[in-house]
Amino acid sequence: MTEALLLENTKLKSDIESLKNQVESLTRLLVTMKREKFGKKSEKLVENESQRSLLFLLSEEDQTILNEAETFAQSLKDDDIEVKPYKRKKKKNKISDLPIDETIIMDIPDADKKCSTHGIYFPQISKKEVIKIEYTPAVRKVIKLVYPIYGVCSEFCDLKPHIVPNHEVLPNTVASPSLLTNLIVSKY
C-alpha cells in the first residue's frame, strides 16, 4: 500500500511540474502577444532565467486592476481623439530691431551699367540688402549694405545680368571684418 502511495505521489508531483511548465510557457506567450499588440515591435526582450516576471507577484486585485486598465486602453484606442499639433514660436530677429547707423550702396561703375552691344543702360531688377555689425572698441555700428542687381537691356541681349561682387568675409552672417578681428584678438 505504501509503495502504491509513493508511486502515486511521484506521479502527481511530475504532473504538477509539467502543468507548472505549461502555465509558465502560456504566460510567456501571452506577454509576448500583448507586447506585440500594445508595445513597440522593434523592442527586443532578452529573457533572463534568473529574473522572474512581475506578473507572478501580482495579487488577484492587482490582476483585475491590470485587466481593467487594459480594457480602458483598448476603448481609448478605439475612440478618435483629436490632438492639436504643437506650433513652434517664431524667434524674433534681434538684429533687425537694431537701429541702422549707416547705409552704403555698393554699386558698380556707370560704364559697367551700359550694354556694350546695344548702348542701353541695364535696368535695376532688384537689390540685395545685407546687415553687418561693425565693431571698434566701445563702439558698435550697424551698417546696411545694399547691392543692386541689374538685368539685361533687352530680351535680345546675350549678356548675363550684372551683380555687384560680394566682399563678405563670412557670407550670410552679420559679422564684419572689424567684428571678427575684435573677437579673435579678445579670444587669444
Can you walk me through this structure?
This protein is of the alpha+beta class and about 190 residues long. It folds into two domains: about 1-80, no CATH class; about 95-185, no CATH class. Helix content is about 40%, strand content about 15%. It is built from four helices and four strands, in the order H-H-H-E-E-E-E-H. The chain has helices at about 1-40, 60-80, 95, 175-185; strands at about 100-105, 125-135, 140-150, 160-165. Strands 1, 2, 3 and 4 form a four-stranded mixed sheet that branches. The radius of gyration is 40 Å and the shape is elongated. The mean pLDDT is about 75.
Strand content: 15-25%
Uncertain parts: none
Instruction: Compute the number of structural domains.
Output: 2
Q: In terms of structural class, how would the helical and strand content be classed? A: alpha+beta
Q: For the report, how would you describe the main beta sheet?
A: 4 strands, mixed
Order of helices and strands: HHHEEEEH
Form type: elongated
Radius of gyration: 40 Å
**Terminal-residue CA separation:** 100 Å
How many E-type strands? 4
Tell me, rounded to a whole number, the average pLDDT.
Answer: 76
Number of helices: 4
- Give the helix proportion (percent range): 25-40%
